[in-house]
Every structure is written in C-alpha cells, then in structure tokens.
Amino acid sequence: MVKIAIDAMGGDFGPAPIVKGTIAALKKKRFIPILVGKQSEILPLLPRRYRGKISIVDCDDVISMSDAATDAIKRKESTIYTAMELVRNGEADGVVSAGHSGATMTLATLRLGRLKGVLRPALAALMPTKTSNRSILMDAGANVDSKAEHLVQFAIMGGCYAEDMFGIETPRIGLLANGEEKSKGNEVTKEAFSMLQGYKGFRGNVEGGDIFNASTDVITCDGFIGNLVLKASEGVASTVSGLIKEYIRKSPISITGALLMRKVFKLLKKQMDYEEVGGAPLIGIKGCAIVSHGKSGPKAIKNAIFQAISYTETGVNKHIVERLAALKEKQIQKEGS
C-alpha cells in the first residue's frame, strides 16, 4: 500500500485543514498517511477511530515562509526535512507539503536526488482550458534560468506525465514563444526548438493563448516565464470574478442573466480553483513531492494526496528515465554518424 508523508505544520492555517484533508482522503482511497508535525497539536484533531489508521512523526521545527529556502538544508529536525527523509529511507513513497515551496523543492532535489539522466527537476502546473481537460505547464517556477537542454527535458518529462497521469497516448507538446513561427523566440527557445524537432508529439512554438485553448497538452518554458504566467493567470481569474460580481451589483437587469449563468460560473470557478488540483508535482526527482498552496484547505490537501498516490502508482518516474535514456542514445548515434 502507498505511504504518503504529509507536512502537517507547513500551511498558513496550521495543522487543522491538513488533518481534515488527510481524513477526507482516507475516506476515499486506501493508503497509509504519515503526518509529520507537533503531536501535541495533531492528536487532538484526530477522531479516535482514525488514530490507528494515521501515523504521527513528532517534530517541532517548522520552516516559515519568511525563512530562506537554503535554511531547510541545515534544519534537519524540521517537518519538511523529516518528511523528505521518510521518502529517502523508503519509509514513505511521496511527500505532500503546503509549506515553504522553495524549501520543499530544495530538499526534494538535494535529499531525494534527481532521476538518472535528469539535469533539473521542474514544477508542473495544471492549467484550465476551455474543455474539461487541463494543460500542463513545465516549468512553473523551479528554475528561473534554463538552458535549451533543460527545456527539452521539461518537454519530455511533461509528456511522460501527460501519458501516465491522464492517459494521453501522444501528448501534444508546445514550446512557449512570442509567436508560432520557427523564427520566433529567444536564442534558448530557438535552440530547444531545433533539438525537439522530430520528437513525437512536438508541435513547435505556441503562444500564451494556447495554454488555455486546449490545442496543446504540454507547454514548455523556463521557470521564470512559467511562474509569471501562473501568477498572471491567477490575477486575471480573480479580477474577472470581481468584475462580474460588481456588474451584477450595479445592474438589476444583470441579475437575471447571472442567475441563468450560475451553473456556467460554477463550472468555470471549479476549473480555475487550485483546490481542485491540490498541488504541483516536482517532476524529475526520485520519489514524489507535491507542492501545495500555502492557503490550502482540506479539499486541496485531499486532492494533493490523491495526486501523490496516482503519481506513485502509475510509474511516471520509470517512464521518464527510459525516455531520457532513449533520447540520449539517439543523440549519441546522431553525433557518431
């Protein structure tokens, strides 16, 4: 049975929503949860009937959002460090944390290590589209400076993730640029374009709008651009939602239309709600690490746990290692010919 280590203290609201989310996940799926945090605070939140189903690893130190990500390497008694060590030692299969994202990614990379052949792990963000499907943005913030070979690997890892997690036989992969033409982009993206040409599923350059129109399954970019896209999208969604409410408040006529569109708005909100996704996986590391939003409620934690279970069970990591090895072999053959 899959074992998931959960940082019980990392979120903005303490252990309560994390414990609730863990219990909600247990009601739906069979797995072994390990809550890492202050036992004195966690235990009172656990109903008696769940105390035999959930393990607690007592840990007092918590990396706060104001701490530097590198501090986590030194603070070996912290909740996130302890959770990572459980995976490193084979006592857990994956980690879920709504705490310091930088600390989580740093420790996952340094303590768990990279998969064979992976140059840099990348954060995968699931973006809403005009259909019920989501597109995968790689990298969403793990690497602010990336070379062409990193972008190529992000594309390949994102493709493996799309195949195994969403059952897409041949994911459509696009390289984010300022135009669809081959000549568009900067020197890094142009080089990445050249390296990806001929790769199964590669569609060439895509623009920002293609992230949301369901024309592409995987969109590749460096973490600096990816994080800007992610934050800008969240800002637009919040602004549009606020504008709709304001227009309805000002215009009585709009209320009738709003009531008719209520179901549509509800579906749209669900598509754009980070709680529906749960978190972003750091792809390219040994094991599994899901980085959740600091404001995650029980629903987000539940879905993040579901992500961790699925990631572990589908064997994405093995697929990535095999695909990268095949690509390297192909490159060697090309250079030798």
Task: Write structural notes for this entry.
Helix content is 48%, strand content 15%. It is built from 13 helices and eleven strands. It folds into two domains: 3-118 and 284-316, 3-Layer(aba) Sandwich (Isopropylmalate Dehydrogenase), CATH 3.40.718.10; 122-273, Isopropylmalate Dehydrogenase. The chain has an eleven-stranded mixed beta sheet, with helices on both faces. The protein is globular. Helix 8 (223-250) crosses helix 9 (252-260). Helix 2 links the parallel strand 2 (32-37) and strand 3 (55-58). The protein has 337 residues and is of the alpha/beta class. The protein starts with a strand and ends with a helix. The longest helix is centred in the last third of the chain and has 28 residues, at 223-250.
